[in-house]
Amino acid sequence: MSDNSNGILPISLIALGSTKLGSGLESSSDSSTGLSVSRRISREMALRAAYVIELRASTIEEALNDPLVTEGQPVSDFTKRLITLEVIHREQLDETIRNKIERWEFHRVAIIDRLILRLAVTEMLFIEDIPPKVSMNEAIEIGKKFSTENSGRFINGVLDSIYGEITRGENQIQTGGYQNPD
């Protein structure tokens, strides 16, 4: 791959925005336009933004104004919320993920897998209106589509371990996300 400082994103990330709305996908609205945007598309846009922020050291605003991130689509409130929470809590998210990865060095995890995990754990811990299982399933599907052949299983294993910790009330950074129904 060529130097990413020139603004070129890998084809797999550019293709993220071309996903068509599927049946059963929840949606959120863009407050400035009132348009409905599927949460899947919002998650994929957040993934592209996270990628730009990670590789270019861009700000959230710069990433969400990048035409390769938005692909001409409105940026939903959900996308803004998700990427903002991910950036704010990145160190804590990485520590949570790092503690669940067995036989792997965190920095050697594929960047797309790492970003998908961060975003999914952000949803699970900090966004109350989305059940953790939905966040997990979305992350697994996005991983299967845009990362390696084994990403779905890898992402599932890590997220399932974190979910177990959350439901047992053991996660220390849970500050507003999913609440154990017990």
Describe this structure in words.
With 182 residues, the chain is mainly alpha-helical. The chain folds into 2 domains: 10-88, no CATH class; 91-171, NusB-like (N-utilizing Substance Protein B Homolog, Chain A, Orthogonal Bundle), CATH 1.10.940.10. It is built from 9 helices and 2 strands. It has a two-stranded antiparallel sheet with strand order 1-2. The longest helix is centred in the N-terminal third of the chain and has 18 residues, at 39-56.
Structure in a nutshell:
With 182 residues, this protein is mainly α. It has nine helices and two strands.
Describe this protein with a few key phrases.
182 residues, mainly alpha, N-utilizing Substance Protein B Homolog, Chain A, 2 domains, two-stranded antiparallel sheet, 9 helices, disordered C terminus
**Which stretches of 5+ consecutive residues score pLDDT under 50?**
1-25, 174-182
Structural class designation = mainly alpha
Secondary structure: number of strands: 2
Question: What is the CA–CA distance across the termini?
Answer: 49 Å
Q: If you consult CATH, what is the topology of the largest domain?
A: N-utilizing Substance Protein B Homolog, Chain A
Query: In CATH, what is the class of the largest domain?
Result: Mainly Alpha
* Shape, per Cα inertia axes: globular
